[in-house]
Amino acid sequence: MLICVGIALFLGFTALGTWQVQRRAWKLDLIARVEQRVHAAPVAVPTPDQWPRIDAAGYEYLPVKAQGVWLEKQSVLTKALTEDGAGFWLLTPLQQADGTQILVNRGFTPEKMRAEWLKQIAEASPSAVPVTVIGLMRMSEPGGGFLRHNDAATQQWFSRDVAAIARSQGLAHAAPYFIDQGLPTGNPAYGEARPAAEQAGILRSGMTVIQFHNSHLVYALTWYGLAAMVLVAAWFVRRTP
């Protein structure tokens, strides 16, 4: 019976270690693909017929370009914690010529500016001025964040949940993703992507953090180490009279 348990543990730990090695290879490939992707020239945003096929593997952090007019009055503030401290992301829908909307994260604003932004949003007038937005495609963040759930009724947003924000703001044809306005400094279109109206200390774009947690090697070594410990324990048991 003890032999069967030892064999099962050894095979189980070895399988888990091998799985982590495979996960590490996948993660390194993902990091390499994204690193190459974020430095590519911006392309046109996906059309509505492409929306069902959009996923993180194929589109996250893809540099894109979109044209339209701002729907300032449908803007929302979502909680943010950045290198500049705590504050909010300003998300404004961009109305495209085909009638669809794309939520655009226009940048970070500090906590002290919240009341001013809420006032500007409430007093905003319809705009007919066309704008071009260049930035990185991001996937929706459903549910909430900061251990809090989004509350559309009180306009308390703790994550950039595209579907929930679109519903609360009456956006009937919103894209299933959002755009972080601005590009990494190494992108050839970096200068073109910077908003002309950006003001230091009030609204800062281009703050996308591109990081991937990669501890798979540590996990793999842990599982393989446990498998080795099973072999050592079996050797001691075998030597014990």
UniProtKB/TrEMBL annotation:
Keywords: Cell membrane, Membrane, Transmembrane, Transmembrane helix. It is a multi-pass membrane protein. It comes from the Bacteria. This is SURF1-like protein. Coiled coil: none annotated. It is found in: Cell membrane; Membrane. The keyword Translocase does not apply. It comes from Comamonas terrae. CDD domains: SURF1. InterPro entries: Surf1/Shy1, Surf1/Surf4. The chain crosses the membrane at residues 217-237. Belongs to the SURF1 family.
